[in-house]
Amino acid sequence: MNFPVLSVITFTPLVAALILLMIPADRKNETRAVAAASAAFTLALSLWVYFTYDQTLGGYQLVERYDWLPALGISLSLGVDGISAPLVLLTGVVMFTGVLISWGDERPHVMAGIQDRPREFFAFLFVLAWGVFGVFVSLDLFMLFFFYEIAVFPMYLLIVIWGWNVTREYAAMKLTLYLLLGSVIALVGALAMLIVQYQNTGVLTFDMLAMESAGFSQQFQIIWFLPVFLGFAILGGLWPFHNWSPDGHVAAPTAVSMFHAGVLMKLGAFAALRVGIMLLPEGAKHWSWLIMLFAGVAVVYGAYIAFVQTDFKYMVGFSSVSHMGLVMLGFSTLNRDGLLGSGMQMFSHGAMTALFFAVVGMIYDRAHTRQIPELGGMSKIMPFAAVGFIIGGLVSMGMPLFSGFVAEFPIFMGVWQVNWLVAVICSISIIITAAYIMRIVRQVFFGDVPERFEGHLTDITILDKTALVTLCFFMVIIGLYPKFMAPIVQTGVDNILRLLGGS
Amino acid sequence: MFTPLAFASILPEILILIVGMLILIIEPFWKEEKRRNVGWLAAGGLFAAMIVSLIVGRPGEPLPTFGGMIRFDWLGFFLKMLFMFAAAATALLMMDHERLAARGEAYLLLLASLIGMNLMAVSADLIMLFLAIETASIPLYVLAGFMLGDKRSTEAGFKYFLFGILATTIMLYGFSLVFGFSGTTDIYRLAEMFKVGEIAPLTAFGVLALIFVGIGFKVTFTPFHFWVPDVYEGSPTPVAGFLSTASKAAGYAVLLRLFFVAFPGSNLSVAWTTALVVFAAASMLVGNLLALPQMNIKRLLAYSSIAHTGYTLIGVAAFTQFGAASVVFYLAAYILTNLLAFGVAMAFSKATGLEDLRDYAGMSRRSPWLGLMMLTAFLSLAGIPPFGGFIAKVIVFAAGIQAGYVWLVVFAVVMSVVGAYYYLNALKFVYLYRMPNQDEENHPIPLSRPYAIALIALTIGVILIGTVFAPWFQWSNAGALNLF
Amino acid sequence: MDFIANHFLALILLLPAAAALIMLFLPKDEVKLLRWFAFGASLLPLALSIGVWFQFKSFQPGFQFRERYEWYEAIGSSFYLGVDGLSLTMVLLTTLLTPLAILASFNISERVKAYMILFLFLETGMLGVFLSLDLLVFFVFWEVGLIPMYFLINQWGSANRNYASMKFLIYTMGGSVGLLLGIQLLGVLFGTFDLLVLTQRWTSLDPDATLLGMSVSTVKTVAFWAFVVAFSVKVPIWPFHTWLPDAHTEAPTAGSMLLAGVLLKLGAYGFLRLILPLYPVEARYFAGALAFLATAAIVFGALSSFAQTDFKRLVAYSSVNHMGFVVLGIAAAALASGTPDAVIAMNGAVLQMFNHGLSAAGMFFLVGVIYERTHTRNLEEYGGLFTLIPAYGAILIFTGMSSLGLPGLNGFISEFLVVRGTWPIFTGYVAISMAGLFFTGAYILKALKKVLHGPLNERWAHGEHVLTEVNAREILVMAPLMILMLWIGVYPAWILDVINKAVGFLF
Questions:
Q1: Is C444 within the bounds of a domain?
Q2: Residues in chain A within 8 Å Cβ distance of B464
Q3: B345-350: which pairs have CB atoms within 8 A and are 24 or more residues apart?
Q4: Chain A neighbors of C70, CB-CB under 8 A
Q5: What is the pLDDT of residues A82-109, one digit of tens each?
Q6: Could you say which of A70, A149, A188 has the minimum Cβ distance to residue B384?
Q7: Interface predicted TM-score (ipTM) of this complex, two decimals
Q8: Are residues C230 and C294 in the same domain?
Q9: I need a labelling partner for C194 at 20 to 30 A (CA). Which of A491, B77, B206, C406 fits?
Q10: Taking a contact as any Cβ pair under 8 Å apart, which residues of chain C between 135 and 154 contact chain A?
């Protein structure tokens, strides 16, 4: 057996979390260094996973399998396909940048980043990462849930302890309960699948590859698709279940917002795809119109709500709803182009929104306000952050040559094949997005620096810059050269299409 | 009569008795300030007893011993091990309780109760069962009211006593009716009679209802839960922990054996599984909703334990082998988790004398490790991996769905989200809020050695069940197999 | 050498972007270095495109210098470049105007680095539209050009720049959404974005078949209008032109030069490259409407221009007026494609694109020159400046005449061709547009009179506001433009030959 890279990448964050807890609380810089080193190590591993994935072969690769509870057919079976390989990379990237940004600036007049109990912060963050990696690489339904829940609960603490002190208690509770509810409802569906597959095949197994051929009856699929898909889609921020998301994002500390919007929402979308669509394809076909409706509303409504926000972070939060709507929209098409676009959009949005939140955090840490009208001229103080945000904004607008375009374009192509009207209506969001992005760029980054900030604000640190460059790099490289990602996603999409019966 | 096998079937009890006698003998020789070491003796003795039992006392095929009084099987054995582990942990936790620590009789009462519970797990005869229940209960009445002079403890002891007596009396009445109708008290023979229809279903149902009251009191499902919050709150914390875990699990042992074995007839099962489903739903609803406003950690845990009874009942109501296995597994996870929760509460109140959640503010800064343990316990209770509570819930839910109780599982799922609210809310005090002066570093929470050992062992146990769950499930499953 | 010969177009396209990337690493305070670097970098594509011009075989139909690279195969798009006579003319215009615009912006002293980088990116964006033979790549560059322009206006523009840049962006993006949807439709239907393949397959669809639940002709009509709106906003065709005066007026001088000189041509180019080949039937059907709008643009553009008191706004509206002729020629060609008249009209339209590029860029630059000195654009505040700055006056008059269509200069040739070609097809519209042409003369002359003649405004003769003559750099900017104006006016054959053959092959 080759080097078990997937189990190593999954459990590295856990080990890192344990190591972090062993460091004395007052050794803050050592804590950060350990966290950064672990994150860099994970990033390297995730790059390795991404580039060793053989796109000519497709299918599940780097597969590992350890029996866990044979009596119930639970095994720790890991593997990546074309959809999850980019997401593993995304997780590595966001985690690395998130840790860098949380390092912050310790000088008393700045106090950016995480200065209160960094040890616990990073430990919880790494537990979160553990769950996230686990979900992306799990081929076992039980393990998927196991990791899924692990990814949900540290959010509560991360938000409630280090969050924005105005809304953190409310937002953290709301977020956690929403997500828990969604996941346990999906769990009920998954258990139903397990039982039925046992009755059909006589083999008790949570192995998703086996479940794909479990022969669920059409009626069963139609009944259970919605709970499973929507249960996960809550984390994906699908309208009308998106309510937790802007509040949660706003209240969360920067790195957590990055992680949450950047990776966790993908977790929901990914699980909805993997469990909902791939295991219950007939159900997906039956309900795709409803998903499309929800997603379509999310796209346009999210963009509009983002447009009217005056709080910088709320704006970014709602823009996530809109963009994740596009992912769901792509899912709902159930065709090649749409799914391809969704796969790309998951990565693209992850990097983009992580960058957004990073920049928002940098500004808020220094200016202590996020009200757009109160800000201005930030490009003079932190030009690097301004450029980063603009690139992110262009991605968000779906500007060609950035990853957003190569992701959104196929989604719309997919929608065209299903319902042209939806494509036309959703395209409105492009204009709205352009409007709010450009407005915010102008109001926050250009113009004059308000008087009360003169001389008080400092530029971002070199670590912040590194993080921004890393994120921008991926967004630009995919936009310029879609081949970096598209063929890999393509192999994953082919697999889904096979399950859908080649439609 | 005393074949080696018969001896093996009650080996743990014999060993416990020996430990108890040792305590009786040694304790008077120790000076007042050294008497708390009885706890070491009790815990160590129980630990040794477990090891010895595991080596030489393991059951093979299910076997009646002592003329059918006792059933020597895995189910009983596995539960016994759990009870003994719980008792050992409780003994450790008692060691720094200001009122219990130096009182040798407290440990003795604990062991006596433990013997009763062990026998509850293996009783195959109604008379034996009744005796076991009484043996388990009476020491607990005393322990609950142990803190003489403390109004709440006295109230707890008295309340527990009255409720307990009432419930057992009703149950005894049921037992006697069973005997009257059937002429036997052997559960396994009763089962056969039910099968061939020698007992009229309606009669049986009436009798069952009476027995149900007794068991309902033990496992604390709604509507027999009224005593729980007051008793838990008033009893010494370690005793409350023991009540909420081992005592309850022993009730479940009875429930499983009595209903799975004795009354499995198809014409009856519908009626009583329906009853169980209703009780389960009611317990979840009442437990979770009433837990929401609680600010006293013991009351909170009391209501939460009612809710957990509800989850467990799903597995019983499923009425399948898988359901039984899920119940045993759930009990294992729940015993460790809840003991851990009470242990943390005990450690905290030992250092501060406080039990109100609001006083937990800043606890994670005062003692990061205790904070993490509380996190473990509460997240496990909330059913979040990688802790035992998660996998236990999943298995119970799976059993429920397999049996077709989809709506009940959905209800349980919603209720568990409600539960997550108050668990997380408690953690908010621990992790978010600060002490009034924000000087937590000046208020550390020292952990004495017995606490550290007990809490660490429990924490590891909770995590082990939640991650390496295969052996636990196999044991539970092996136990469940014995019922069929 | 072989490498260059094999990758002419890719080099032309990517050199500016590469230079921009290099500039990222240049020190931001070395203003001189930055300016000259950018200027030098923009000369390379010019040299290459002149090379292409001379190697281009105008008698050969189809696209030449084709290059194809993998780009986004997953949805059937490749990086496919190629030129024909039509696009080559536009490429030449772009590569010519960009260095001049950069030279014109040597007076920018604030954040030179960012400015120059944006400019180079802008050049790549514009060139990409002209060079791409893949519909998706076309769209990519179509959109990409917007962003540098937005920032150029927004950051280096004049007082009302926020409003103008936003309006510019929203209008053009709004227009592009239709284009985007149309392109998606085509991509979905055929699984490829190769323009040549698409043209063939799309036009040969059975009009009675159904697509997406509608008849093919309905779908085509909708898609046609989606394309038309996108390009009309860019051209701009009346009534979609309202962003233009604001954007042009507020943009920095060099930005206005490129906006008027090249960006407007993108729209017209879209008509020629996409709409006429893809929608010959619909184009013919709606040609009348298009001609009407073009006439309206000519007339209202001229009238609005005449009414302005702001020099720059006046020039901006003149673009509406001039681009109207381009559209008029296109409309005529659409209605009567294949006839000799149509070819003439089309020749005129393409040449008019080139010419307007020269004259509008020149005019905007000259406005910039005077504005820089006087800090006003109000025509009423000038007056009699000819005596103070005779060289400037001469250049302004020369360029104005070119714009006005004086025989002997380039404007005349193209407008004559358009009118000549369109006359038999849309006699009525041409007649009306001649009235517009009259006003063209009127507003140019009005501008010349207000600026150069009449009583001298003493303010500029003495004291702190004293006017200085054009300097060598400014003459250097104008010289190539004026030479070309004259050259095309006297001897248009060199460029018309290429255009004519390309148009002949196409239509």
A1: yes
A2: none
A3: B345/B237, B345/B297, B345/B298, B345/B301, B346/B93, B346/B96, B346/B97, B346/B237, B346/B238, B346/B241, B346/B451, B347/B445, B347/B447, B347/B451, B347/B455, B348/B297, B348/B445, B349/B237, B350/B96, B350/B97, B350/B98, B350/B448, B350/B451
A4: 483
A5: 888 999 999 999 989 888 888 877 776 6
A6: A149
A7: 0.85
A8: no
A9: A491
A10: 136, 139-144, 147, 150, 154
